[in-house]
User: Fold Guanidinopropionase from Rhizobium leguminosarum.
Amino acid sequence: MTATNTNFFQPVDAAEVPRFAGHSTFMRLPAVPSAAGLDIALIGIPWDGGTTNRAGARHGPREVRNYSSLMRRAHHVSGIEPFSVANVADIGDVSVNPIDLLDGLQRIQAGIAAVVKEGAIPLSVGGDHLTTLPVLRAIATTGPIGLIHFDAHSDTNDQYFGNNRYTHGTPFRRAIEEGLLDPKRTVQIGIRGSVYDPGEHDWAKNQGIRIIYMEEFVRRGAVDVMEEARAIVGDAATYVTFDIDSIDPSMAPGTGTPEIGGFSTREAQELVRLLQGVRIVGADVVEVAPPFDIGGITAIAGATILFELLCVIAAQVAAAR
Amino acid sequence: MTATNTNFFQPVDAAEVPRFAGHSTFMRLPAVPSAAGLDIALIGIPWDGGTTNRAGARHGPREVRNYSSLMRRAHHVSGIEPFSVANVADIGDVSVNPIDLLDGLQRIQAGIAAVVKEGAIPLSVGGDHLTTLPVLRAIATTGPIGLIHFDAHSDTNDQYFGNNRYTHGTPFRRAIEEGLLDPKRTVQIGIRGSVYDPGEHDWAKNQGIRIIYMEEFVRRGAVDVMEEARAIVGDAATYVTFDIDSIDPSMAPGTGTPEIGGFSTREAQELVRLLQGVRIVGADVVEVAPPFDIGGITAIAGATILFELLCVIAAQVAAAR
Amino acid sequence: MTATNTNFFQPVDAAEVPRFAGHSTFMRLPAVPSAAGLDIALIGIPWDGGTTNRAGARHGPREVRNYSSLMRRAHHVSGIEPFSVANVADIGDVSVNPIDLLDGLQRIQAGIAAVVKEGAIPLSVGGDHLTTLPVLRAIATTGPIGLIHFDAHSDTNDQYFGNNRYTHGTPFRRAIEEGLLDPKRTVQIGIRGSVYDPGEHDWAKNQGIRIIYMEEFVRRGAVDVMEEARAIVGDAATYVTFDIDSIDPSMAPGTGTPEIGGFSTREAQELVRLLQGVRIVGADVVEVAPPFDIGGITAIAGATILFELLCVIAAQVAAAR
Amino acid sequence: MTATNTNFFQPVDAAEVPRFAGHSTFMRLPAVPSAAGLDIALIGIPWDGGTTNRAGARHGPREVRNYSSLMRRAHHVSGIEPFSVANVADIGDVSVNPIDLLDGLQRIQAGIAAVVKEGAIPLSVGGDHLTTLPVLRAIATTGPIGLIHFDAHSDTNDQYFGNNRYTHGTPFRRAIEEGLLDPKRTVQIGIRGSVYDPGEHDWAKNQGIRIIYMEEFVRRGAVDVMEEARAIVGDAATYVTFDIDSIDPSMAPGTGTPEIGGFSTREAQELVRLLQGVRIVGADVVEVAPPFDIGGITAIAGATILFELLCVIAAQVAAAR
Amino acid sequence: MTATNTNFFQPVDAAEVPRFAGHSTFMRLPAVPSAAGLDIALIGIPWDGGTTNRAGARHGPREVRNYSSLMRRAHHVSGIEPFSVANVADIGDVSVNPIDLLDGLQRIQAGIAAVVKEGAIPLSVGGDHLTTLPVLRAIATTGPIGLIHFDAHSDTNDQYFGNNRYTHGTPFRRAIEEGLLDPKRTVQIGIRGSVYDPGEHDWAKNQGIRIIYMEEFVRRGAVDVMEEARAIVGDAATYVTFDIDSIDPSMAPGTGTPEIGGFSTREAQELVRLLQGVRIVGADVVEVAPPFDIGGITAIAGATILFELLCVIAAQVAAAR
Amino acid sequence: MTATNTNFFQPVDAAEVPRFAGHSTFMRLPAVPSAAGLDIALIGIPWDGGTTNRAGARHGPREVRNYSSLMRRAHHVSGIEPFSVANVADIGDVSVNPIDLLDGLQRIQAGIAAVVKEGAIPLSVGGDHLTTLPVLRAIATTGPIGLIHFDAHSDTNDQYFGNNRYTHGTPFRRAIEEGLLDPKRTVQIGIRGSVYDPGEHDWAKNQGIRIIYMEEFVRRGAVDVMEEARAIVGDAATYVTFDIDSIDPSMAPGTGTPEIGGFSTREAQELVRLLQGVRIVGADVVEVAPPFDIGGITAIAGATILFELLCVIAAQVAAAR
Assistant:
């Protein structure tokens, strides 16, 4: 690991200022107005306009910020010190519109595009899973990218409530149709739960998406599964999206569409750690819905997964420097 | 009171079947497929597409149904037995669309229009306050009607988030612009809380809406205020809308936009009882948002206000027979 | 007030031992095995076998004990120091049987009879309201006594679920039938909420019970109402029963049969303070159901009402010494 | 899998009607008045009269119905489409009596007997575990049947609180004594937690019941354990009872007698899926106690286990057609 | 009211940016590093080192910030627009020390002294009530000031747990002893609840403090009581401290020492509005303890009282300009 | 196992007295005033003065007592009957001081010293982890002892908030410095989560402490890890400390410093059972913080771990007799 760059933004030290004190920002980092000068921009997307059942992910960024105060400076397994090897800050929330879906999508895209323009990697906190679509629109401007997708649901359905094409159950179908994702470089891990139809995932599979159901994950384990996942996305640009509902509802109850039998947080951490080596051009944690959370455990899980992702991306930034 | 019409639908008797048993319907009445043959149609509008802050009113009808099992057959003060003097049933929920605002408004209007067509009075449970707009569109088809409006907020703002004209902060401005409401026969009671601008209510007042702020209510009391309210709407057709946030957040915490200093439930009950004599062509209870409720007390309040409204309307039905 | 009897049991002092420390007993008094030597016996009745809807009052004594740690030694208005003028202790819970209603009633009666035999006044914490029936059986052994009854419900129904005569909706009808209560010396205060039938209270009224509905209380106020109540019971032996559901559900949500529009805790305190002068031979606080409580506020209300009752009874004990 | 029988009842489609809309029924199926014409009858048993500690399972059916709206039409692993291969509906709740234990048992038996008479397989949702006794009385009318029993507790105790023989800790002892169960065809899986006596399970073992403690399950795994379980019950008629407290309290906190160290929901799902091949004549999910639930996670677990059981039974129905 | 000073800091507009979006600050004002240039400095004191029972007020500032997003720009009764007539911002939290009481007191004093030095009026959010002592030390540097004190408790005890002189039950005794407060210009309003000793308030009364018990307030009403309060403090410098436990526990359950029978929020608002005319040199809202809050209602009450105080102080600033 | 000593204290039998009845004590054992005559003294330490973030462990003993009513008389795996082979009782809580850290430490030490003096083994319930320091001071009076430490955190930091040396993050550093612990006979199991510095544990490791991170535990399993742990502490006197935050936050959310990826309760039970053979001179369960608990699951976990520890120690007592 390289020596600390003393010009980088640093989080408030909890041994000096207690975790409950001060303004709430991601990882207790400074709040800055833009991604200028950053390697990694932590950003909130407080929007759940695509939610078909239980809304509330609009409140996700605030609570993930609150509980991210529990994070410290270094990763206890990898030893990565993200704030020493990368310039990271909290750039606030993108502009949203809670009552106009299409306008909401455009605002989110614009917000992420501004990050990308500055050369920073966006690491965002949703928001429902439809937020990933405008994020991909902002990132995949020069051709389809790869995707590693942790989720209980494939989110490749076509339409809801008549002919509504944009919901949190459809973003990855839209992203493939729009040429943002390369389905052959897309892998979904943890998929489970009852389906509308036995053939519900046929479209995705026919496109070339690799779906690793929870049952396969349980048989094979994280190391084996992630080896395959890394092989699928290869060396090219890849987005990582972590739907908190991939984690079991007992460990992440605060979400819109819970499905029992999910990842333990321990498994989730191992999966994210095994992302090392992937060329990540952006990542997110989505579907944390605080109104349905209990005791903040979903927000704690979300904040910790965010920290795990940050460490992986920071190591990549350091290696590329 | 007239003798019981034994052909009317009757609620399940809690002295025979405990309140926690059986399918959950409004007041434990039978679930029927349409308003045909009904005097009063209880109906849910599970939609919160116009909510600008904390969504969740989409879950309102379900929880109000659950807690309405606490209601019994007769009003202990007026002696009204609504199920004996009017034919009442639960006709389920209108069709909604949680991700398309304009489609949602149309579906709600169509659902209520079907009730009106059958000659039944719609008594609905929202849903956020924007749901009242399509309800009014379905009811006020032959000219503007009167409105008695219990709320913490005037809901006569113009636009949000750019030029969005349809939110739960704007329905009554739209209704007046559309000729659905007669502003001179419109009275708002319980308005309070900080405002965007000291002149925020000027448009409403200029239209002729009478705003009775909470402070005036406290000074004058329910009897005096309702005498004025009844005078304002007079003998013509009037809609009654009860926003649960008119009640204090300690008694109705499960709502999107709480404002302290609200009505006590006792005051709210008295206000509704004093509606007797108004010619009610429809009524609703809105903004019960169960994800923010605690211990079900908001749903209990909502269910009881619904029962109070039902008694008033049933008495009117009986009187008109 | 007489000087402190230093032989009396004293509560733990919160200025010496914090409220959260030590075993949990009523008012932090010593736990003693029987009522021998006591003037007033605090006792739990953890039983809800008569509950027709939401059970949970079986857990009432434990939580009221927990929150009664908030009580201090003296009443701030009357100046009464109950532990200085009366010997008071926590004698534990009566024996109960959660799965056999009739055996449960007998066990409760036996437990209270043991208190009465020792010459102590039982001040109990339920349990559901059916527990008051066996308490009255243990106390009213020489003829009917008077009753001051704070409640949302008259609890004078006849039968439930076929021909079941013992539920928490029937105790006072049974008590009158059994000659335990003198209906002409019985007053019920705070009755409200929808009823099964407009004539539901006719039996009670025909017996001579005075029902003061909530609406009458609101009009007249506590002083006037309690003057009448004291006149009704006169100088003879009287039992006082306080159903926590007489208090508004926002202030006492943890109960089985909530009815909005209840007493504020402030009103409840005033009512109990106005019991001074009544010859109380026993009292209870019932229907605190912790599984439905939120933030302990119902248990706090129950514990404080218990303290208010204790002060009144202690003053009576002191006056009679 | 056979083609869809278009005459079968179908659940509401969540891609057309959001999950929060409409009346709440099991799996969003139609509510029908009886089991006539059904292959499988979903039925609630809202009764907890046998509960010795924390009551609340009486509210189980309502909340399991609510959260069963999360289920979709097909099983993602087995591909079973229960509503296509079997006629399934929600027939409501059996009649219960919350204050008379023996009457309660008779009502439940009668309710299930009516299902059996129609030739439908009852798949019920409790209620506490004593409800399984009257269910077995209704089913095992021609001789003892087998039992696969998932639970933390053996529930084969003899008496409580004196000589009370009917509690949720005794149903399977009673069922064996009454000749309803063949103890040699009875297997209990997941048993754990402190016991009243080291020999507490001796009676059960002496009868021939096979108890697979949690520790043995952990060593052997679901596949091996269920192979043994299937061998124990063989090809003859077998009842399956799933006590939600077999699942860990962190994943199913809403229950009366929690014991840590339970099944994960993932393990529970695997166990139920491995029931395929058993000849199931009835099944239940019991001890979901919503007043002790948090965030609905117990109800979600209960609803999903209900769906898993439904899929297994539906496949059996289809195979037998 | 003077015209808006366009150089003043302005809150984010909820009609442009939804309330759940963006970093959380008091009233959605900008976060600034110091009080330089401010008229009024909003500041958090996240410290509860003096709490003798239930701690948690250390988390108060964060939650009050969160819920203060519900505030808008203008007061609906007085018309005051605080952000137009005064320069107000959120200067963050003072430095605290959660494990060293004396160091904690010094840090708080230093933090407030820095505000005073800039000429700004500190309007702080605690924190337990002991935090008011170091605030007074920072403000009353030139002689004793007056105090208007809303609380359930007098907080003038002497010692706890042996000879500990600094707890949240003792600050005003210490402040008088230290010459920070003029007891003859000190008034306490809303005092209630059981006391350690009937003479518990004798010291305070002997010093000249005017205690207006809750019962007196109920008899006289807010207008009369506040007329007296304003007369007591007169025209000289006065501090205003608002303990959230002065409000009833049903409306402010999230606090350390709840006492039933408190102010309604409506009464509390009226009391604060009647502070107009007092020369306020600092004010605080203390004892909001989020771990004991339910549904955020205590934080909402705290945030609104903060806004009410802000309006009064801003009007005073404007008048003095 | 030796025959029951009928003179030993026995818990209340839940088949005779329901779990919710009676005063709340550890395991429903008698409350006795001192450790005289006991083999094992169950004792509460309601103190969290060393907590740097979320306080609340002061309330731990009360809730662990409440939920320990779920424990029965015998261990279902080992068959140990602790109350038959050892004399065990609840001796209440040590004296504490919530507002003076150093006085608090002294009081705790004195309380435990009194137990040790009686020759009983203290098995305590915290309280935060700093409470273990004064416990060790009371026990390790003749030289350093060994330690088996289950925790998410090493708790060997040096200073907080300036130069504060006593917090719940520093006890084991202080204990080693004070010669209470032999670092070469100290093993920490389950350590995980982000760290202040990659070298944060260097001091501990340099002292000779063996840290088994969660990741190593997952690889090796409980049997292997505990074999090493037993070898490290050998045959000499050893203390066992169980921080509830070693368990995953989903299973033990009620704690001050949650870290995802923790032990399952099943793993925790196995670990504690594998302590058999260690010479335990004292043990504790710490950091149960009820204000952050949900549904009591943390208290249930704490109570069960307490029972598991009790069984191991009781077996040791029996073996040594």
Notes: Chain B has a mean pLDDT of 96. Chain B touches chain C through 33 residues (CB under 8 Å). Chain B has ten helices and eight strands. The longest helix of chain B spans residues 297-320.
